[in-house]
């Protein structure tokens, strides 16, 4: 989908109508190829065999995972901090929105806030926690920051499990759905739009001078600080933005699936799924995870429907692929694409 | 190591030291208080309970600390070694037990659990060596850039493969045994303690002591410490890094498998059984400082006290939430742990 | 048996006359460096049995790179390294150490959280014979009595001079035939540096072959038999140390005369 022309890789020729179109696309972080793929995904729910309800559900799963991978990579690929509590932040957004929407007498909170507003409140709460997480991990590098985020995630999961008057604990919540329709197609366009918005906003940020500061901090924290980049400001900003979107996506999850338990959304293994997708796609690209997520979800859902007696096989495949990528191709799919583009440019006579 | 500190960094170094001492005294004081509170309010049973658990957490954490100290790998699949140990012990012990029911043999009945535990330990060692040779050795030869984070993510992948692989092959169901030995609980300080628990504790203590002796009094043990302290120096005196890395990973995996096997009666065997031991081992190593092996032994008991006190006074559901919050504070105020960690390469990005 | 008043254990009796001996170490057309940065260009040198040879040159000339490549810590790009006539070009560092070459690096690479004694015992890691280890211990404690006093102290707490001594002593524990010493006087007060040079001369008298890299050209040319001058990764001069100290270039650049 949003394959973006790489900054600083050769001159860009923006002349003519096609040129100004490409240039306009480039401003929001797309290349023509990326846009074409994106349109393909957008019309997929109308084209057989993708128009079947259960396949539209797969598309929704793919877009949800892809959008999460974008938000995750915004932290992991840019400031080089692995937010190992990512799933818990997604869960926080989901729970916030679900609790606010509650009208049933089982919970102590009975506000009945419409989900359409709730998911934005959830995003805000997650963003605030991201702000806090950014501050907590401020002095920590590498593995320490990852473990800190992980511990915060475990604590959140524990709270969701134990604060039963709010969350009903392991029994879970059944929040109202966003729409009254039983068709999946409208939901697909909602999550698809959310994914595109997430991508464009985060891409715009990384393309600005802020993104430069992120990369500088990610590559050499001390050198960046010495050259006048304020690590507090940028790290906190990065975490807050990434978590804001994570919480927003969580809200969609709650009001689409209509069921929420601490384990199904906040568990560390959920973080690992997002992380694997983002890494196989390629760190620091944002779009790599999106390109990976759709085929992956299809492949895995297919496996799951064909081999029902083999639960967890897809997770084994995640693990194997991730290890292979980490050892042999640490730049992931995005790295492969960059390499191919460079190769094509060099081979083309100028 | 001998870096001259200038103005602001000197000041932050002093603050870090103050933070570390403060956290150390709070944590140690707190755990002593928790111990006394447990003994007075809940009776010695809970105190003894936490000491037994502490031995096992120490055994798990020593392996974790070792792998980090020597190889700089933040091992996220350590709990899966525990899981493998539990399964192997179960599959060795159960048929033996069945056989003994029809053919009673007092000597074999006493020995059967030990055979199961030993088998689990050996399988753990071999598994560790295989993982090291298959995954970390090729990675090390390829690149050492971003080693700590990359290996962390790889161990996350290993953990994923192993838990889900176990579900695939063995199914999600629990496999357990009521107890290893048909012996009545033993009375101690007016408390009845299951014989299995006493043996498990003894195994932990003996293993840790033997391991400590191995590290400090044999050339191979010294070589392991040497690699942790200076890799170039170790090679310069003729130490084969590949051998030490495989040995280290094998030993750490074996210790976790040993823990899983000796606690089979308590935890049972199922694919995600390693999760809780993994969490607690991580609490311990972050508490005492990454890679600090001696500290991990004490830390195991501190965390177990904290855990038991939480179970007793707040509720069993909170047993991982409270330690997590304590650990967040520790990371915040004393990121290198209460006993400090000076492991090479940790601060790389 | 005594050599200049020092008791010597039996295994070190082979006193050799300088030069004329067989080539112990031979480096041929060595090219080496780090990733994309080549540091050494066609470096050739040799050290004969019993010889005390120096490698001098300005900072960044590639002296340390030469020693690290011989020691196996760095794999050369091309060229050949022979030890006792056998190629050791791509031998890993731990094997180089085991065949009788000890490398004492500039940063010493001691094990800071181990005692002096443990550091020394690790120096004899490849030696399995307990009796030989205890002989080696006696030998180095005799050479550096100071280390004997501090044997249970942690290496990280030693003074700069003591650390150098420990590094040399650790290198001697494996009873090597060739010692590669990198900048032993670095960071030491002149008096302590002299003490270290005395120790090297003493080892040499006891039959150890030494290849020394040193900034302090004055003393180096006084105590060594032969020397190579390495500039910008190339050997530009070689000869007897006594002759080199009379060379105009050496005098001008290194001796400041």
Q: What is the gist of this entry?
A:
The complex is a heterotrimer of chains A (350), B (349) and C (257). By secondary structure, chain A is mainly alpha-helical.
Helix percentage range of chain A:
over 70%
Distance between the termini of chain B: 18 Å
Q: List the secondary-structure elements of chain B in sequence, H or E.
A: HHHHHEEHHHHHHHH
CATH architecture of chain B: Orthogonal Bundle
Quaternary structure annotation? heterotrimer
What are the key terms here?
heterotrimer, B: 349 residues, mainly alpha, 13 helices, disordered C terminus, C: 257 residues, alpha/beta, Rossmann fold, six-stranded mixed beta sheet, 10 helices, 26% strand, disordered N terminus
Please provide a written account of the structure:
The complex is a heterotrimer of chains A (350), B (349) and C (257). Chain A is globular. Chain A has one domain: ABC transporter involved in vitamin B12 uptake, BtuC. By secondary structure, chain A is an all-alpha fold. Chain A contains 16 helices and no strands. The N terminus of chain A is likely disordered. With 349 residues, chain B is mostly helical. Chain B has one domain: ABC transporter involved in vitamin B12 uptake, BtuC. In chain B, 76% of the residues lie in helices and 2% in strands. A two-stranded antiparallel sheet of chain B has the order 1-2. In chain B, strand 1 and strand 2 form a beta hairpin. The longest helix of chain B has 37 residues. In chain B, 54% of the residues are buried. Chain C contains ten helices and twelve strands. Chain C has a six-stranded mixed beta sheet with strand order 8-9-10-5-11-12, sandwiched between helices. In chain C, strands 4-3-6-7 form a four-stranded antiparallel beta sheet, covered by helices on one side. In chain C, strand 9, helix 7 and strand 10 form a beta-alpha-beta unit. In chain C, helix 3 packs parallel to helix 6. Chains in contact: A-B, B-C. At the A-B interface, helix 6, helix 13 and helix 15 of A face helix 4, helix 5, helix 11 and helix 13 of B.
């Amino acid at each position: 989908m949003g394959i973006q022309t790489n900054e600083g890789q050769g001159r860009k020729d923006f002349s003519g109508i096609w040129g100004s179109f490409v240039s306009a696309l480039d401003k929001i972080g797309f290349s023509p190829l990326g846009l074409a793929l994106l349109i393909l995904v957008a019309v997929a729910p109308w084209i057989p065999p993708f128009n079947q309800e259960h396949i539209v559900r797969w598309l929704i799963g793919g877009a949800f995972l892809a959008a999460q991978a974008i938000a995750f990579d915004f932290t992991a690929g840019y400031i080089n901090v692995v937010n190992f509590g990512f799933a818990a932040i997604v869960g926080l957004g989901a729970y916030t929105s679900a609790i606010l929407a509650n009208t049933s007498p089982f919970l102590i909170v009975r506000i009945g806030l419409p989900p359409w507003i709730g998911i934005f409140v959830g995003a805000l709460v997650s963003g605030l926690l991201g702000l806090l997480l950014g501050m907590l991990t401020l002095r920590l590098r590498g593995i320490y920051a990852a473990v800190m985020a992980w511990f915060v995630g475990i604590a959140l999961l524990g709270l969701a499990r134990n604060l039963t008057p709010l969350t009903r604990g392991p029994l879970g919540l059944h929040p109202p759905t966003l729409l009254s329709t039983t068709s999946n197609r409208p939901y697909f366009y909602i999550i698809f739009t959310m994914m595109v918005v997430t991508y464009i906003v985060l891409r715009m940020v990384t393309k600005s001078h802020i993104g430069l500061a992120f990369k500088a901090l990610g590559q050499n924290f001390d050198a960046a600080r010495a050259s006048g980049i304020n690590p507090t400001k940028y790290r906190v900003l990065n975490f807050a933005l990434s978590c804001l979107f994570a919480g927003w996506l969580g809200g969609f999850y709650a009001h689409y699936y209509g069921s929420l338990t601490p384990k199904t959304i906040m568990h560390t293994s959920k973080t690992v799924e997002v992380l694997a997708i983002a890494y196989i796609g390629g760190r620091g690209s944002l779009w790599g995870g999106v390109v990976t997520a759709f085929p992956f979800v299809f492949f895995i859902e297919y496996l799951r429907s064909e081999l029902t007696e083999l639960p967890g096989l897809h997770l084994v495949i995640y693990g194997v692929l991730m290890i292979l990528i980490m050892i042999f191709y640490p730049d992931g799919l995005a790295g492969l694409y960059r390499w191919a583009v460079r190769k094509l440019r060099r081979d083309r006579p100028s | 190591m001998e870096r001259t500190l200038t103005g602001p960094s000197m000041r932050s170094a002093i603050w870090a030291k103050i933070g570390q001492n403060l956290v150390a005294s709070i944590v140690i004081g707190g755990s002593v208080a928790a111990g006394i509170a447990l003994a007075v309010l809940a009776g010695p049973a809970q105190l003894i309970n936490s000491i037994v658990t502490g031995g096992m957490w120490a055994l798990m954490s020593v392996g974790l600390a070792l792998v980090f100290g020597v190889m700089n790998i933040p091992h996220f699949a350590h709990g899966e070694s525990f899981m493998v140990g539990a399964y192997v012990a179960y599959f060795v012990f159960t048929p033996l037990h069945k056989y003994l029911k029809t053919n009673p043999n007092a000597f074999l009945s006493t020995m059967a659990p030990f055979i199961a535990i030993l088998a689990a330990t050996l399988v753990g060692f071999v598994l560790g060596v295989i993982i090291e040779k298959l995954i970390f050795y090729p990675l090390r030869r390829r690149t050492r850039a971003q080693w700590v984070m990359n290996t962390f993510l790889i161990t996350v992948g290993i953990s994923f493969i192993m838990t889900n692989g176990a579900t695939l092959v063995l199914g999600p169901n629990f496999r357990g045994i009521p107890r290893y030995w048909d012996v009545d609980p033993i009375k101690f300080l007016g408390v009845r303690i299951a014989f299995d628990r006493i043996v498990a504790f003894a195994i932990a203590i003996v293993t840790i002591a033997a391991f400590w002796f191995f590290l400090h009094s044999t050339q191979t043990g010294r070589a392991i410490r040497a690699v942790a302290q200076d890799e170039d120096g170790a090679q310069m005196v003729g130490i084969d890094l590949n051998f030490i890395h495989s040995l280290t990973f094998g030993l750490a995996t074996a210790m976790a498998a040993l823990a899983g096997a000796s606690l089979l009666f308590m935890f049972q065997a199922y694919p995600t059984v390693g999760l809780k031991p993994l969490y607690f081992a991580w609490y311990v190593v972050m508490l005492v400082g990454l890679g600090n092996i001696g500290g991990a032994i004490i830390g195991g008991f501190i965390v177990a006290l904290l855990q038991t006190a939480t179970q007793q006074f707040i509720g069993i559901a909170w047993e991982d939430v409270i330690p997590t919050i304590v650990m967040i504070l520790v990371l915040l105020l004393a990121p290198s742990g209460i006993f400090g960690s000076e492991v090479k390469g940790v601060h790389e990005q | 048996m005594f050599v200049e008043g020092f008791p010597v254990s039996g295994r070190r009796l082979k006193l050799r006359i300088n030069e004329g001996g067989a080539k112990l170490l031979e480096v041929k057309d060595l090219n080496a460096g780090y990733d994309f940065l080549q540091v050494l260009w066609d470096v050739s040198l040799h050290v004969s049995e019993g010889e005390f040879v120096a490698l001098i040159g300005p900072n960044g000339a590639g002296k340390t790179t030469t020693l690290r490549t011989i020691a196996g810590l760095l794999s050369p790009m091309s060229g050949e390294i022979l030890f006792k006539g056998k190629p050791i070009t791509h031998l890993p560092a731990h094997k180089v150490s085991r065949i009788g070459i000890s490398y004492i690096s500039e940063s010493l690479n001691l094990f800071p959280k181990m005692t002096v004694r443990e550091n020394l015992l690790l120096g004899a890691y490849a030696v399995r014979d307990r009796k030989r280890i205890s002989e080696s211990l006696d030998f180095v404690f005799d050479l550096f009595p100071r280390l004997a006093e501090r044997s249970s102290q942690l290496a990280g707490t030693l003074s700069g001079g003591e650390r150098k001594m420990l590094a040399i002593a650790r290198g001697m524990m494996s009873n090597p035939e060739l010692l590669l010493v990198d900048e032993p006087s670095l960071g030491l007060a002149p008096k302590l540096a002299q003490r270290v040079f005395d120790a090297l001369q003493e080892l040499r008298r006891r039959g150890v072959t030494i290849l020394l890299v040193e900034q302090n050209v004055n003393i180096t040319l006084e105590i060594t038999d032969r020397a190579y001058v390495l500039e910008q990764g190339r050997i530009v001069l070689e000869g007897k140390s006594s002759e080199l100290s009379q060379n105009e270039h050496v005098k001008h650049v290194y001796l400041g005369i």
